[in-house]
């Protein structure tokens, strides 16, 4: 007996799955490539804005370096050495080419390379921001889930009021109040940052207050929306424990929102560490920017602002890519 011939349109399930996976990878790579291309003009605009912003600041860098007692000839000689006598377009091209070479200029304040100044401070800022981000994600998501599981209860109302206070309270005021309570009154932690783990607690908590509150509010609203879906009602009807429904089913579908907020807030933490580092005397990029502004140290200001801006753009790019991995529908946008 002759075996029945397969229909021409038949595709084995394994082959169909492989084709689907390969197609998804191609769409993902195409999306990443498109996002990378969109980042190029953004980085160009950032470099132009930072260059022009610093050059439009009041004060002549050459005269600041030369001092008040310097003659016009000395000021002119310094201006030529720094290339300030050339047209702005030529100065910008030189500036960009030096960046690609890793040359960020020479600090007017310390007469050391700016790259050395930044490399000694950048790890401290990144470490502080990373610890603050971990605190924000852990406690923000936990508070949001608990509030969503008991909507409009006393704990939910207290949590949301606390989140509103966390968003509204100025960073410097919160830092000073924490120092007064936990350092001056109780003596649990050092008053100022001393490089130890204890010295990092108050700066990290102060820096984490705003993103923690935002994550709590966003997690709560996303969880409330998901908990009203039919598949959640079906899971509860099947008799699944409430903890499984909350964390395995509902929270899993809120991860795209949480990932987006967390990624954007990490960029804000790097940029917003200026006030926190000043309050706690934390030796990071933020305190370096403040010291450089006071000293009119233009190359250092320029390099620090550019570093923070580029970091923010790249973190947004990374967040978009991770979002597309978690939610494949984004790739089709």
How would you sum up this structure, described in words?
The chain is mainly α and 333 residues long. It has two domains: 15-100, no CATH class; 120-320, MetI-like fold (Orthogonal Bundle), CATH 1.10.3720.10. The chain is built from 13 helices and no strands. The two termini are 53 Å apart. Residues 6-21 have low confidence and may be disordered.
Quick take:
With 333 residues, the protein is an all-alpha fold. Helices cover 76% and strands 0% of the residues.
Q: What percent of residues adopt helix (DSSP H or I)?
A: over 70%
Q: Which percent range describes the beta-strand content?
A: under 5%
So, CATH architecture of the largest domain?
Answer: Orthogonal Bundle
The CATH superfamily of the largest domain is identified as MetI-like
Spatial gap, N to C terminus: 53 Å
Task: Look at the helices and sheets and give the structural class.
Answer: mainly alpha
The count of β-strands is: 0
Q: Quick one: overall form?
A: flat
Question: How confident overall, as mean pLDDT?
Answer: 80
The total of helices stands at: 13
CATH-assigned fold name of the largest domain: MetI-like fold
C-alpha Rg (nearest Å): 27 Å
The overall number of domains is 2
Low-confidence stretches: 6-21
Q: According to CATH, what is the class of the largest domain?
A: Mainly Alpha
Query: What characterizes the major β-sheet?
Result: none
Order of helices and strands: HHHHHHHHHHHHH
């Amino acid at each position: 007996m002759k075996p029945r011939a397969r229909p021409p349109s038949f595709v084995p399930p394994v082959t169909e799955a492989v084709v689907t996976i390969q197609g998804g990878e191609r769409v993902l790579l195409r999306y990443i490539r498109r996002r990378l291309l969109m980042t190029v003009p953004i980085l160009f605009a950032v470099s132009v804005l930072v260059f022009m912003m610093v050059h439009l600041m009041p004060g002549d860098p050459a005269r600041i370096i030369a001092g008040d007692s310097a003659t016009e000839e000395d000021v002119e000689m310094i201006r030529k050495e720094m290339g300030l006598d050339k047209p702005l377009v030529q100065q910008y091209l030189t500036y960009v080419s030096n960046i690609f070479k890793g040359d960020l200029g020479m600090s007017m304040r310390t007469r050391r390379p700016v790259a050395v100044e930044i490399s000694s401070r950048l790890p401290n800022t990144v470490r502080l921001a990373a610890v603050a981000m971990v605190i924000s994600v852990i406690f923000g998501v936990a508070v949001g889930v608990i509030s969503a599981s008991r909507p409009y209860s006393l704990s939910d109302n207290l949590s949301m009021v606390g989140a509103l206070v966390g968003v509204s309270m100025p960073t410097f005021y919160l830092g000073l109040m924490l120092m007064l309570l936990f350092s001056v009154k109780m003596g649990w932690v050092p008053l100022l940052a001393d490089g130890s783990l204890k010295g990092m607690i108050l700066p990290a908590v102060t820096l984490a207050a705003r993103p923690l509150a935002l994550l709590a509010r966003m997690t709560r609203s996303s969880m409330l929306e998901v908990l009203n879906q039919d598949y959640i009602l079906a899971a509860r009807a099947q008799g699944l424990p409430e903890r499984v429904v909350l964390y395995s089913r509902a929270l899993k579908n809120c991860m795209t929102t949480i990932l987006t907020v967390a990624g954007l807030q990490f960029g804000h933490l790097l940029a917003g560490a200026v006030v926190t580092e000043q309050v706690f005397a934390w030796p990071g990029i933020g305190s370096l920017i403040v010291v450089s502004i006071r000293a009119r140290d233009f190359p250092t200001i320029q390099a620090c602002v550019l570093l923070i801006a580029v970091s923010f753009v790249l973190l947004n790019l990374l967040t978009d890519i991770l979002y597309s991995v978690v939610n494949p529908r984004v790739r089709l946008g």
